[in-house]
Design goal:
The structure holds two protein chains of two kinds.
Chain A lengths: L2 E4 L3 E4 L3 E6 L13 H9 L7 E8 L4 E8 L5 E6 L6
Antiparallel strand pairs in A: 1-2, 3-4, 4-5, 5-6
Chain B lengths: L6 H9 L20 E4 L3 H12 L6 E4 L15 E2 L6 H21 L10 E5 L2 H16 L5 E4 H7 L15 E5 L3 E2 L2 H14 L3 E3 L4 E7 L2 E7 L2 E4 L2 E4 L16 E10 L9 E4 L4 E5 L5 E11 L7 H14 L8 E11 L6 E4 L5 E5 L9 H14 L13 H4 L6 H4 L4
Parallel strand pairs in B: 1-2, 1-12, 2-8, 4-14, 12-19
Antiparallel strand pairs in B: 3-7, 4-6, 5-6, 9-10, 10-11, 13-16, 13-17, 14-15, 15-16, 18-19
Helix pairs in contact in B: 2-6, 2-8, 3-8
The chains are: A mainly beta, B alpha/beta.
Bound molecules: flavin-adenine dinucleotide (FAD) and zinc ion.
Zinc ion (ZN) binds next to loops of chain A.
Chain lengths: 88, 414
């Protein structure tokens, strides 16, 4: 079992963490017209990085959102910070 | 032409000490320029090259593989073939593939060991039986052979399964496809490679494509670890690595999918059983090992090795399905980097860069689709147009919202 770091709870089992998506992916502003391409890219496309990936995760035990850097080949967690509105 | 394989040849080579077989395919250095380049020497890439040469008469074709043939998911899968999908578009695709598989050993003069031992998807409650009936109806309307079977039939097909009423998920019956079964995965890659090579296709191994050669907004070839290789049409069939070479975006996420093989034992299982509730499926290989698979790992990853929570889920499911197997030892387990799409259906068609055609998104279930995937990508490359079977799987379906959501039929499995 791999252990992931939570800035609030310390090292915890990987099963307590939930992968929520790419970091930096922003929902298009739907008060303005959004093209099919933009909307489809938002819904379906992923960075799908091989190597150093920046992702959003949730620690389900404390319900905090985390900005996590992870190597998708070695599975190592490279950095973790809390992810709050306006901070990243 | 490579020498043909036959019973007579086997006898002759056996008497001669097996010294006269020769190489099954050449190991050429890449030319500077081809008409077609296929990136990826897995099943889909090799089949594409074969059909380009065989069906479309193309002579200047290269397959470029970064490792060895079938070293990706084609050599890592649990070898289940079937065509029991829900939507007509998928049924047309996967049944085309199964029909090609049924002829393939003869066509390629290579025994792919297709064994149509049947496959049962178990139903564990009355509502699941009702859903199974609906699925069977859909499949029959699509022209796929599917039967709704009851618990007694399951018990006859696979007595090793726990059919007792006090099981964690009691077995009520299931969806049975008699034409489903298994095939030898390496043989599919090798058979296509040998036949393509005999038709003049250059198969180049240990050569990594690093990026596409773009001139005037169009793809004119590839940059590789062995230099630039030019071609006006490039087909890409690299599964989990579909977005790594850059140039275009795709709705693909790469996950690890794991599988397990047990120590060999006497025959206990002569069909394939899959339980969506337990999240496990298994069959028994001709060598006697149980071949066990299940769902994806929880985390996107390119590591061709898996994590333990998924192992625990799959193996505990196996023991619930067949408690008699609890003491069986595992021999090996491994993972592959599979290409998952939002609707669990493949992506076949041109990408935004002219000259590049993609075949990917098979996720957990593209071994069964190798003959069709190759046939259809070859058609696209040779004619520039979709075959009617591949048209619904064009990448534009995501923009149009015309998804083919097969999560229920392919959800975890194969
Ligand atoms: C554990 C497991 C079990 C499975 N079980 C089943 C099953 O029971 N039934 C079923 O139908 N399907 C199953 N699948 C899925 C199936 O294996 C795949 O969908 C199928 O093999 C994909 O074939 P492919 O040719 O597209 O990809 P691959 O066989 O992965 O081939 C892609 C090739 O591209 C090469 N490549 C990648 N990047 C580059 C580059 N930059 N340059 C050159 N070459 C490159 C790779 O080395 C690889 O050889 C399973 C998969 C796994 C991992
Ligand atoms: Zn926490």
């Amino acid at each position: 079992m791999q252990r992931f770091p939570c800035p609030f709870c310390g090292l915890r089992d990987e099963t307590e963490f939930f992968y929520a998506g790419d970091l930096g992916k922003v929902r298009p502003d739907t008060t303005q017209p959004v093209s099919d391409e933009e909307w489809s890219a938002y819904l379906n496309d992923y960075a799908n990085v091989k190597g150093r990936a920046k992702e959003v995760w949730v620690h389900t035990a404390c319900q905090e959102y985390l900005a996590l850097e992870r190597d998708t080949v070695t599975m190592d967690v490279l950095s973790v910070t809390q992810f709050r509105k306006g901070e990243i | 032409m490579t020498k043909s394989y036959s019973g007579f040849r086997l006898l002759k080579e056996g008497i001669g000490g097996n010294k006269g077989w020769g190489q099954a395919w050449r190991t050429p250095e890449p030319e500077k320029i081809y008409d077609f380049i296929i990136v990826g020497g897995g099943g889909h890439g090799l089949a594409t090259a074969y059909y380009l040469a065989k069906k479309h008469g193309q002579k200047k074709v290269a397959v470029i593989e970064r490792g060895w043939l079938g070293g990706g998911n084609t050599g890592r899968n649990t070898t289940v073939v079937r065509s029991n999908y829900f939507y007509p578009e998928s049924a047309a695709l996967y049944d085309m593939s199964l029909k090609l598989y049924e002829q393939l050993s003869r066509e390629l003069n290579f025994n792919i060991m297709l064994s149509q031992r049947g496959m049962v998807v178990l139903a564990h409650s009355d509502p699941e039986m009702e859903l199974s009936a609906r699925i069977v109806n859909a499949m029959q309307i699509n022209g796929t052979d599917a039967e709704l079977i009851d618990a007694d039939r399951v018990k006859k097909l696979a007595p090793i399964l726990n059919t007792r009423p006090d099981a964690r998920f009691p077995i009520k019956g299931g969806v049975y496809q008699g034409r489903g079964g298994t095939a030898r995965h390496d043989a599919v890659a090798w058979g296509y490679a040998r036949a393509a090579d005999a038709l003049g296709v250059d198969i180049i191994q240990n050569c990594e494509v690093t990026n596409f050669l773009i001139e005037g907004g169009e793809c004119k070839g590839v940059e590789t670890s062995k230099g630039t290789i030019r071609a006006s049409r490039v087909g890409v069939a690299v599964a989990g690595h579909s977005t790594v070479m850059g140039g275009y975006k795709l709705p693909i996420q790469t996950y690890t999918l794991q599988a397990f093989v047990s120590e060999p034992m006497k025959p206990v299982m002569d069909t394939v059983a899959f339980s969506p509730s337990y999240g496990t499926y298994f069959s028994q290989s001709d060598k006697g090992g149980l071949v066990i698979g299940g769902g994806l790992d929880r985390i996107p990853s390119y590591a061709q090795k898996g994590n333990m929570p998924a192992q625990e889920a799959v193996l505990s499911g196996l023991i619930e399905m067949a408690p008699a197997l609890a003491k069986v030892k595992l021999l090996r387990h491994w993972g592959g980097a599979v290409d998952v799409t939002p609707d669990s259906s493949p992506v076949i068609g041109p990408v935004d860069v002219p000259g590049i055609y993609i075949n990917c998104g098979w996720g957990t279930g593209g071994f069964k689709a190798i003959p069709a995937g190759g046939y259809l990508l070859a058609h696209l490359l040779a004619t520039g147009k979709h075959h009617e079977v591949s048209a619904p799987f064009d990448p534009s379906r995501f923009r149009k919202g015309r998804l083919i959501d097969e999560a229920a039929a392919s959800g975890i499995a194969h």
